[in-house]
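Hi team,

Filling in the usual template for the complex we talked about on Friday. All components are listed, including any nucleic acid strands or ligand strings, so the model treats them as one assembly.

SUBMITTER: L.P.
PURPOSE: interface mapping
COMPONENTS: two
RESIDUES: 459
SEQUENCES:
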Amino acid sequence: MRRARTLLGLAAVAALVGLYFALRAPVDAFQGEYARIMHIHVPTAWLAFLAFGVTAFGSVMWRLRRSRRWDRLAAGSAELGVLFTGLALLTGSLWGGGVWGTYWDWADARMATTAMMFFVYLGYLALRRSSPDADTAASRSSLLGIIAVIQVPLVYFSVNLFRGLHQGQSIRPDGVTMPPEMLIAMLVNLAALTVVYVALLVARMAVLAEEELVAAVEPIAGTSVVPPRFGEVGDA
Amino acid sequence: MSFWGQVREFARRDLLAERRAGEVVSIVVPFGAVALMAFPLALGIDTPVISRTGPAMFWVVTFLFTMQIALRHTASDASHHRAMLALVGIDPFARLVGRSIASTILIWLFMAVMFPVMVLFYSPALPPTWLPALLPAALAGMGLAQIGTLAAEVTTGLQARSTLAPLLVAPLAIPLLIGGSQALESLVRGSGILPWVLLVSATDLALAVTAALIAHPMEDAAL
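RESULT (copied from the run log):
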């Protein structure tokens, strides 16, 4: 838990640095101040992809090793993926309202596929909570965690596959189509939010491990009486 | 017994159980018709809007009630029943395929009843010829049955099964709903339906591959 606390402190500092760079970045000639939202929107979307990739990796490892650690990794990362996807949808919608004149456009494939991905992973989390036994929940949700990651490339390449309001990728193998000052601000925010993601993931995995320990305690008489925890007496 | 023999037996058993219980015919189908009726009542007297939304409502109702069909009591196995089937060497994928076939037939039946009901209540613009419309509709029904069967498998034995299963699979059904509804609209406009047929077919194929891949691990998780 100490490691998680240290990482959370580091994440808070990183978030402040990211915010500073986002506010110091130059204003876009067409988008105005709304361009600053992109410094949060793009990194949160990328981190959502990373989080769901980690969920798939954790799910595969759970199926191979049957170790609780991998299931906690998959579960914690899926929760953060949903959080970052929600933030990406929210910030994208706010940006769209100011720049495109609409908060949502059904004809845009990137928006529709991102929303679809969001709901699939909400279902993943609901599936986890529906199984009373941790191993059963892990077995069932690992399958969904592996299958659902197929959506990540679909969402990413949807701007190339379908025409819509979203622009294509700004960072491509053949070059970058944005000014260096804006690129630096975005990359700093990406690094900062990655630290936030890692810190939250480590903290969440520690909490999940504690929850499993609590769940493993057998009630003596119903749920109103539990065995004394002698190790905790000294802390009081 | 061969793989296809097992598939045939499962499909036959499911349909026989449904014929005896009448869960789909006597409960789900009338409820679907009521759902189709509720929307125009809630919307009020706006005939052009009702007419335009008819085909979309048909697909939405079909999707939602597909879940009811896939999660019907006559098609759910208790864990001891599953254990017995595993013990005698029944292939879990054969069980999935057989169940999907039975659900497909029941969903086609549901769609065959709902479409005239939708035409009656909504008076939508209809294509000049009917035959080409049947192919994408049949393929979409097949895909919905596969999705429903997979959702039913993943949520076997869970308390919140009836609400959790639709949440899990609703996003996956979107290509089927788009393909089915757009094919009908294309026919009304007089344009081709091939892209929509391909979209629905590709989704069906992807679902079949997924079912083949997860049938055995799913069996382990459910036992």
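MY TAKE: The first helix of chain A runs from residue 2 to 24. DSSP finds seven helices and two strands in chain A.

Thanks, L.
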